[in-house]
From TrEMBL:
This is Helix-turn-helix domain-containing protein. Pfam families: HTH_31 (PF13560), MLTR_LBD (PF17765). SMART domains: HTH_XRE. PROSITE patterns: HTH_CROC1 (PS50943). CDD domains: HTH_XRE (cd00093).
Length: 292
């Protein structure tokens, strides 16, 4: 460290140098191909990925303020710092070394998988931490989307809502559904504030979608477990379905979501038609591979 510079100034220069080394594609951002005035990521992109304000990050990079341990952890993740770089960042900030917490790998619980296998006429899927989709049955794939065609690391329900145009068209009231999911995710963030995958998801969606960014900043929370939704399905038309949640007693981080319709209603009949269509397509019962 130069004797003429304060630790805050050194920290700011270190952050600036690291963001200059990264391109948008390396952090999951769309690369428009436009010429950038400076190399690497922009300040606002780093700030949004770290779920902090651009003004806060700018002052931090200029050496005008100190950073909290949680902000340092978020920046270390966004900038893809290795362990030595994380330690150096912490030393400059006068903090304990910031290392990401490791969480046990999550797989669908066997009893929940059995339920999925037995639900032929009921769309169902299992959500894990961060609303990751861990498993689903053929009718859920036919009703919502073919989860098996989505890379496991991107198989997150909130992410799909905001990034998949087909999901936006599926929900008759997409805005209400998406807003509620953001509020559910905000509640989980309060429960697991040090989850690096959750921070990465929030940062990515904050950059990619203005609605997500606005709703996340509003700090609304929810704990909705039942409801009714109307879907515009491309194969069988409109369906108004009730959804419910079953939480695993042995792993509260796993929830079975089911969709159903009252017998005798058009939606009930259309689910039967969709089940036959899904069987003809040969969609397999699927569980996600383990992920952290």
């Amino acid at each position: 460290m130069s004797s003429s510079k304060s630790p805050r100034s050194e920290l700011g220069e270190f952050l600036k140098a690291r963001r200059a080394e990264l391109g948008p594609h390396q952090v999951g951002l769309p690369d428009t191909g436009a010429v950038r005035r400076v190399p690497g990521l922009r300040r606002e992109e780093v700030a949004q990925l770290a779920a902090i304000s651009t003004d806060y990050y700018t002052r931090l990079e200029q050496g005008r303020i100190a950073a909290s341990a949680s902000v340092l952890g978020a920046l270390a993740r966004v900038l893809h710092l290795d362990d030595d770089q994380r330690d150096y960042l912490s030393e400059l900030a006068g903090k304990e070394a910031v290392r990401p917490r490791r969480r046990t790998r999550q797989t669908v619980r066997v009893p929940l998988q059995r339920l999925l296998d037995d639900l032929r006429f009921t769309p169902a899927f299992v959500l894990g931490r961060r609303m990751d989709v861990l498993a689903w049955n053929p009718l859920a794939a036919a009703l919502v989307t073919d989860f098996g065609q989505i890379p496991a690391r991107n198989r997150n329900y909130v992410r799909l809502l905001f990034t998949d145009p087909a999901m936006r068209r599926l929900y008759a009231d997409w805005e209400t559904v998406a807003h509620t999911c953001v509020a559910l995710l905000r509640r989980e963030a309060a429960r697991c504030p040090d989850d690096p995958q959750l921070a990465e998801l929030v940062g990515e969606l904050s950059v990619r979608d203005a609605d997500f960014r606005q709703w996340w900043a509003a700090h609304h929370v929810a704990n909705q477990r039942i409801g009714t939704k109307t879907l515009h399905h491309p194969v069988v038309g409109d369906l108004t379905l009730d959804w419910d949640t079953l939480t695993s007693a042995t792993d509260p981080d796993q929830q079975l979501i089911t969709w159903s319709a009252e017998p005798g209603t058009p939606a009930h009949d259309r689910l039967r038609i969709l089940a036959s269509w899904a069987a003809e397509q040969g969609q397999p019962d699927t569980a996600d591979e383990p992920r952290s």
